[in-house]
Fold each of these.
Amino acid sequence: MSRPKIVAGNWKMNTNLPEAIQLASAVAGRVNDADGVVKILIPPFPFLTETKKAIEHKATLHLGAQNCSTHDKGAYTGEIAAGMLKSTGCKYVLVGHSERRQYFHETHADFVKKAEQAFAHGLTPIYCIGETLEQRKNGSHYELVKNQVKEVLGAFKPEQIGKFILAYEPVWAIGTGETATSAQAQDMHAHIRMVLAELFDKTTAQQMPVLYGGSCNAQNAPELFACADVDGGLIGGASLKADDFCRIIDSF
Ligand code: PGA
């Protein structure tokens, strides 16, 4: 069973409106719908609608959001609901990014609620997992990643589990310029598939897209994407330049 190839660009808290439109338009102008790669742009919330307008003529270029509320709607000042994201044309939403875990103290219980909201509104959650440098050094990374998968995916029914996308992002590689080697990435991605087979079943393990993230760029993407269990990338810094991002897409 072949899995989709996916490259997602997480712009984080970067760009202003004109820059967002320019970046999205430049990517849309370059991408090739015939390459079979699913491409996702993940701009800041205020720029979702304009980004959507800039990319909607491309069949393989989709919109995603960086976060969503645990709540459906109501008096939650400053929050953004999954249903709102859906109404802007979003298809995907990041859940559990390490920056949400680290700086906003979001927990597995939050991620379960966010993924529930995503499913309730027809969005695909891209659930991010990955260990810190300390956890890798003390050897707890395999168990930690297993637990991150279990605590969130374990709360869902089999038909929903099959709709998740996972992104393995070692925290020590995010924004640091230090990438996991292709051997380290392949090793952890294979571990994640083993965990999925153990917790759920072999089909789930074989079919779930697992992306790599963490200082992925146009230079290292070809080697990372060539790994048997790596299905593409979640790109931060290098997604802010259209040319770099498109070269990453071309890396398969
Ligand atoms: P980076 O970020 O590519 O800048 O390391 C990846 C991410 O956090 O998704």
Amino acid sequence: MNKPLGCLFIISAPSGAGKTSLVKALLESNLNLNLSISHTTRMPRSGEIDGRDYHFISIETFKQMICNNQFLESAEVYGNFYGTSRHWIDAAIASGKDILLEIDCQGAKQIKKIFSESIGIFILPPSIDALAARLKTRAQDDPDIIQKRLAAAREEVSHIVEFDYIIVNNQFNDALNELICVVHAEHLKKQRQLIKHQSLISQLS
Ligand code: 5GP
């Protein structure tokens, strides 16, 4: 597979760290990032729309898609299955777009193996208490699922060293600005700038 010309950003976080809201705001920041819409066997939460938040599919369909090699990565998270469309990513990479994946650590690891240049960003909540409070406030999941997610947060954080950037989501706007800084910094990396400004550099050298 060709090396991506655009950036491939992966954002992971323990559930309740505020990742989805940050990603939404990041997408609205006119940075021209393209979000990969995952497939999941989880039931839609209230307000979620099929095709916008996820492609909601049955376990049978998910298994069939695995058999057909339609996922670039897939993982079981909190008892549900999630997967990233291989076709969508291939097409986005071929057109040189910047891509954003909002996936868990297992998926991030699989993507890093395929695309070593991908940029991993880990979002931390400011404290374990804040995380528990956010999960309860959201209250869209059963209490036993909330407990499961709190326990899983520790396991998720144990993978933090596999990421390139760490952002603490204490103040939403600060965390968003830090995310935007990461995107800008990656755009300015030497290997991308050398290609983008090839003719300028050759004129000047
Ligand atoms: P939620 O059900 O709360 O939307 O997501 C649960 C977890 O699954 C989150 O950590 C989310 O980032 C992760 N997730 C969402 N889509 C994918 C995917 O396509 N692949 C993987 N590996 N994880 C995903």
